[in-house]
Write a structure and sequence with these properties.
By secondary structure, the protein is mostly helical. The chain contains 6 helices and no strands. Helix 2 packs across helix 3 (65-83). The chain crosses the membrane at residues 23-44, 65-83, 95-113, 134-155.
């Protein structure tokens, strides 16, 4: 049995176990992500890599409107999920906004350096049995595990 975390830096709503895990929502989300990636590949011949889409959209390398529509769909879908439901499905957090912004820039730097992100490599690349994507996913997941361990058990942030 996993014990509840009682450190003061976690919110009261944080659950240290899987008792309340909503597997149906996770399954539906996974199906929708897979379906959208498959449809984009089937109808546009494009990989659903978000970092590549954003880069192509903001640098205006392409006049393809689908990039902006896909990004808009991500934002609208997240807003509906968070604010359109009767109760918020996301537990509140007390993360420091500055650290979240720094983390976001580091993730952006990593996706640029790795020539792709979790959606491009993890969802689409692994689905196409790409060895390059497998190495990328193993690299960023290992880095994520180490970072979480350091943040929660060494620095206790």
């Amino acid at each position: 049995m996993v014990q509840h975390l009682t450190n003061s830096h976690y919110t009261d709503d944080f659950r240290g176990n899987m008792a309340d895990f909503d597997w149906i929502s996770a399954l539906m989300g996974g199906i929708l992500i897979g379906l959208s990636a498959t449809l984009l590949l089937a109808f546009n011949g494009r990989i659903a890599g978000i970092s590549g889409m954003v880069n192509g959209a903001i640098t205006f390398k392409s006049q393809e409107a689908w990039r902006w529509l896909f990004i808009l769909g991500l934002i609208v879908g997240a807003a509906i999920y968070e604010y359109g439901l009767p109760t918020s499905p996301t537990p509140p957090s007390n993360f420091v906004p500055v650290l979240m912004i720094i983390g976001g820039f580091l993730v952006g730097f990593g996706t640029r350096m790795g020539n792709g992100c979790t959606s491009g490599h993890g969802v689409c690349g692994l689905g196409r049995f790409s060895m390059r994507s497998l190495i990328a996913v193993l690299s960023f997941m290992t880095t994520a595990f180490i970072t979480v361990f350091i943040m929660r058990h060494v620095l206790v942030l």
